[in-house]
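I'd like us to work through together how a protein chain folds, taking it slowly. To get us started, please write out a protein record for me. Go ahead whenever you are ready, and we will take it from there:
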Amino acid sequence: MQQPNNEAPLLEVKGLKTGFNIDGEIYHAVDGVSFKVNPRQIVGIVGESGCGKSVMSMSVMKLLPVGIGEITDGEVVFQGSNIENLSEAQMNKIRGKDISMIFQEPMTALNPVFTIGFQLSEVLFNHFDISKQDARERCITLLKSVGISRPEKIVDEYPHQLSGGMRQRVMIAMAIACQPKLLIADEPTTALDVTVQAQILDLLKEIQEKNDMSVILITHDLGVVAEMCDEVIVMYAGKIVERTDVDSLFYNPKHPYTKMLLDSIPKLDVEEEALGSIDGIVPSLKNMPKVGCRFADRCPMATDDCRRITPELAEVENGHEVSCLLYKTSYPLEEVK
């Protein structure tokens, strides 16, 4: 695991709030999220579907649907500059070059009517003054670097001619084409079989180490987190409930939600009749609790205070932050009596 360093953060998200306009009212899918990504660090963001992971990443990239989604508060600071104040033209110079993203579904992310080479070349033409021949050669090199055989032929083929694993490798090639400093990988192994998943994760790790990139890895798979990440952020209903290094998360989890997620993972060394489960569902945007812990209705350890007092993310051990009233030393005593 990566050791702490004194370098300035590459990315710093401060109090980010992202909302969607539903029937004329703003409902927040990301509500007050703050975290940092240091140089050469892999940060995992985990949680159930609907917890705000992907919305957070789209907020960082400024790719929210126009007129529907918007950042209502907070800052996204990249290399010391607040990129939320940049124009679309300025963001286009950053996207793909300094910050890149692997989208969740490669079949829909790739345009079916253009060849692989054309789509890879577009990234290069957008950021570099390069000839068509040089771009083609660079595309072939990129495809080869992500483990695609026969790249000279694949570069002229269309997405539907490739398998899911190969399309995902093309997406990775596209994301690293300009050697970005930060790579956001949104569920990079979704819908792939287990063998291909392992190959894609090994490839990402290899590219990250070779290019000294930082990575935000968004997933619901804690096995992927254990394999890949230095630090882990656990999200629930638009908020961070726990943040710590990967070893502490697995060996010393604090938040009830994190513990229940870990209990739902099969263990080879333990005989169990049934896996753990979490009753209920993540509240919808329209039904999000206004006060109190958003996990309270599903938490077996919840008290009346949990529904009355909104917990804040606070450090309970060295570098281990939790948003839970079980750790009352983090809160003014008069609030939790």
